[in-house]
Amino acid sequence: MAWTSIIAIYALFWVMSAFILLPFGVKTADEAGVAKVPGQADSAPVNFRPAKVALRATLVAVVFTTLWVLNWEYGWVGVEVIDLFGMAQRSAG
Predict the structure, then answer these.
(1) Segment holding 74, helix H or strand E
(2) CA 5 to chain centroid
(3) In a 10 Å sphere around its CB, with 0-12 CB exposed, 13-18 middle and 19+ buried, how is residue 13 labelled?
(4) Radius of gyration for the alpha carbons in the chain, expressed in angstroms and rounded
């Protein structure tokens, strides 16, 4: 697998991980017991830390990219394993 493909797969995993991890650990003003700023939305986060989200997304993306590349090299899971409707056999014959 080309290194440019690995970077592209890593970027896809990173963005997906960042969006999935965004709501974890964030509290609203009501949950944190902090006074709201006038005009603030009820759902606005009080303790949002983008660096923490980026670090977590980086770690998750590294793990998933590593598993993806290892699966590509060693062929642990292929089409024949995830072929739910037997389409691989029909198209081969």
Answers:
(1) helix 50-74
(2) 17
(3) buried
(4) 21
Residues 6+ apart with CB under 8 A from 64: 13, 17
pTM of the model: 0.78
CA atoms within 13 A on the CB side of 6: 13
List pLDDT tens digits, range 39-61: 989 889 998 899 999 999 999 99
Q: Give the start-to-end residue ranges of the domains of the chain.
A: 3-92
Q: 14-47 pLDDT, tens per residue?
A: 999 999 999 998 899 999 999 998 998 988 999 8
